[in-house]
Amino acid sequence: MRTIETIKELQQWVDERRAAGESIGLVPTMGFLHEGHMKLVERAKEENDTVLMSIFVNPAQFGPNEDFERYPRDMERDKTMAEEAGTDLIFAPSVGEIYPRESSITISPGRMAEELCGKSRPGHFDGVLKVVTKLFHLSGADRAYFGQKDAQQLAIIESWVEDFNFPLKIRRVGTVREKDGLAKSSRNVYLSDQERVEAPHLKKALDIGQEMVADGIDPISAMTDYLIENCSGRIDYIQLLSYPDLTENVEGEAILALAVQFEKARLIDNLIFTIKGN
């Protein structure tokens, strides 16, 4: 496995892969890898000749009061995990390499960014689309892999790729969880011991909500009461929307999603399912 840091090196590698007729699977990450990322690599290896992982903590998707500077980083650990999973190349650029100058051109995801996390993180998904657009172009990837835990991000990226005819396919990979149900996340390391005990209740609240939806009952109030009783964190949102278009006209595929702000970590989770009878 190689690690490179410059766009020039990446473009040379991509040219070599294309000349060899190899397909490329891209796994975009912000590092501090966990089992969820390894599942993305596993899926990418199944479907491509070679796997490229990007490790880049993207400042464009962090708000002024968010945790860019203290976002967990451990490049040596990441390299070991990525190599063991079968990654062929890590692209780990600096901020200056990706954003060499300030640009006046912006990307807006529009209505889809006004729900869920987008409500309390204005501009976040603008920054996500900014960096994935660069990575899609630079990597020459045939397929890119994203986890369903970040379901709103996934939906927006899928729409972006489809609406603007990007020449690659987006692959969804299911959420990877701890044995107690907590969704794997790089931010879980910021939970206190007590918060770590409480955090699995997010998944339990979702399970309760899904059962209520199946019975034709609005789940929001009951889920809110459950989390207030079992978690010390502040509820940011609980929403039931259609998926992947993220509207309140819920038919067929749906997403039940929530976010809870603990002292030093904001956790998100969701379930995507089909509402019977629709």
TrEMBL record:
Enzyme class: ligase
InterPro entries: Cyt_trans-like (IPR004821), Pantoate_ligase (IPR003721), Pantoate_ligase_C (IPR042176), Rossmann-like_a/b/a_fold (IPR014729)
Residues the entry annotates as binding beta-alanine: Q61
Binding site for ATP: 30-37, 147-150, 176, 184-187
Keywords, ordered alphabetically: ATP-binding, Cytoplasm, Ligase, Nucleotide-binding, Pantothenate biosynthesis
SUPFAM superfamilies documented for this protein: Nucleotidylyl transferase
GO molecular function: pantoate-beta-alanine ligase activity
EC code(s) of this entry: 6.3.2.1
Pathways involved: Cofactor biosynthesis; (R)-pantothenate biosynthesis; (R)-pantothenate from (R)-pantoate and beta-alanine: step 1/1
Taxonomic superkingdom: Bacteria
Subcellular location as annotated: Cytoplasm
Record: residues binding (R)-pantoate: Q61, Q153
Principal localisation: cytoplasm
Residues annotated as the enzyme's active site: H37
Pfam families linked to this entry: Pantoate_ligase
Chemical reaction(s) catalysed: (R)-pantoate + beta-alanine + ATP = (R)-pantothenate + AMP + diphosphate + H(+)
CDD domains per the UniProt record, alphabetical: PanC
Chain's role: Catalyzes the condensation of pantoate with beta-alanine in an ATP-dependent reaction via a pantoyl-adenylate intermediate.
Assembly description: Homodimer.
Note: The reaction proceeds by a bi uni uni bi ping pong mechanism.
UniProt family annotation: Belongs to the pantothenate synthetase family.
Name of this chain's protein: Pantothenate synthetase
Species whose genome carries this gene: Metaplanococcus flavidus
